[in-house]
Amino acid sequence: MGVDHVSFTVTDLDASQHFYSGVLDFLMVLDVGYGRIFMHPETGFTLSLMKHDGAHGGRFTELATGLDHLGLTAGSREDLEEWEHRFDELGVTYTPIRDMEFGYHLNFRDPDNIALELSAPNQLLLAAKQALADGRVSESDISAFVEDNNLDLPKPEDG
């Protein structure tokens, strides 16, 4: 199973289109009046922006149940550094790159405050992905991997 698309409810279609096209290079492929469909030219990832009549609520917050953030992929930490420069040029507010256990993360927000993240894998994440791609991985394999790599992750609850 893979992700086919994501759809965001927005307050201003034009402002959101400007952000996703002008900042993240998505191309609009269809305007249906109440929504616009975009695709990313390099990946084909599909994003729709919808404006619903009667929609309520303010700007996005990850503190409400539902979406926390959308993670987009980058190839390397160096790619994320290039994104920081681009964001500086375009006036996009972001949190500096964070070096985490499973990669590098650059967080930013769209015009409706929707939390977005660009992430790039580190060697540990690349090794984990390869291990999964090579075949079925058991829970004990995952536990050993976590222990071997000094990761302090919560243990699954018995039940």
Automatic annotation (TrEMBL):
Residues 2-121 form the VOC domain. PROSITE patterns: VOC (PS51819). InterPro entries: Fosfomycin_Res_Enzymes (IPR051332), Glyas_Bleomycin-R_OHBP_Dase (IPR029068), Glyas_Fos-R_dOase_dom (IPR004360), VOC_core (IPR037523). It holds the Pfam family Glyoxalase. PANTHER family: GLYOXALASE_BLEOMYCIN RESISTANCE PROTEIN_DIOXYGENASE (PTHR36113:SF1), LYASE, PUTATIVE-RELATED-RELATED (PTHR36113). This is VOC family protein. It comes from Angustibacter luteus.
